[in-house]
Design a protein that fits this description.
single chain, mainly alpha, binds protoporphyrin IX containing FE, 235 residues
Length: 235
């Protein structure tokens, strides 16, 4: 599957993908490092808090990637992106961003599992609302994680279920974005920081605006996007 994708990629798409991968790795490393450096804690406290810092940095990274992917998806369905980048490239990036977001989410929850300050069990991270720590907020995160996994895997059954069913399933992206936003704001501590508030407001603003644009332009755009998608990417 990966080889097939790579064959279809243009040099430009490969470059953008490498940049996205580098940005993800860099964001994770920078996030963890920045949080470490901004805390004047003794060495012991730093090491015992490390999983918590990683959880937070990975959570923010996962949210940024999810937002970027939602915006990219809306750019594809509204055809706004067509003048900047080919549809084949957009589709490949859409799929890869979904995987990167899922990977960051994986790191987010693995760090919770090894955290000794606020320990989480497998049940806490797998069963919605089972955790004793902010059960509603974490429960929404668990549902968001399942939706993210479902939507990412749905890329590989598009040929089997058909473009129309796939697109209907893809509407769950809106639920995923809303759940992830509420989860981030209610579960995390970073919303107290000005820059994080801007990230939540900016992401929600862009996604909300593009969704409204997409609804206003209605079926005409959807029909053209469906036709173009099935001819551009055939699985
Ligand atoms: C798509 C899935 C998810 C995304 C995008 C996501 C994103 C985020 C974000 C942005 C934060 C805020 C970080 C901060 O402000 O410091 C956060 C916090 C948190 N998330 Fe998630 N999350 C997801 C899934 C999960 C899952 C499955 C769990 C498991 C129960 C979870 C547990 C937590 C916890 C406990 C916090 C609070 C960390 C702290 O103490 O600040 N998240 N998440």
């Amino acid at each position: 599957m990966t080889a097939k994708l790579m064959n279809r990629m243009t040099a430009g798409a490969a470059l953008i993908l490498v940049a996205a991968l580098g940005a993800t790795a860099g964001a994770l490393a920078a996030g963890a490092l920045a949080m470490l450096l901004s805390t004047a804690a003794p060495d012991l406290a730093l090491s015992s808090n490390l999983p918590w810092y990683i959880t937070r940095a990975a959570g923010v990274t996962a949210y940024l990637l999810l937002s970027a992917d939602a915006i990219l998806g809306l750019g594809i369905s509204t055809r706004l992106l067509d003048r900047f980048v080919s549809r084949a490239t957009s589709f490949i990036l859409h799929e890869w961003l979904a995987w990167l977001a899922l990977g960051a989410t994986g790191l987010h929850i693995v760090a919770l599992l090894v955290d000794t300050v606020q320990p989480f069990s497998f049940a806490d991270i797998l069963i919605p609302f089972a955790a004793t720590y902010r059960p509603l907020a974490t429960g929404l995160g668990v549902i968001a994680m399942y939706l993210a996994a479902l939507l990412t895997l749905s890329f590989y059954v598009r040929g089997r279920i058909g473009q129309r069913a796939w697109r209907t399933l893809h509407y769950a992206t809106f639920a995923l974005f809303v759940l992830a936003t509420i989860h981030g704001i209610t579960a995390g501590a970073t919303q107290d920081l000005g820059w994080m508030r801007w990230i939540y407001a900016g992401s929600a603003g862009v996604v909300g605006f593009m969704t409204a644009w997409r609804i206003a332009n209605g079926r005409r755009v959807a029909r053209r996007a469906t036709t173009a998608a099935s001819t551009t990417v055939s699985r």
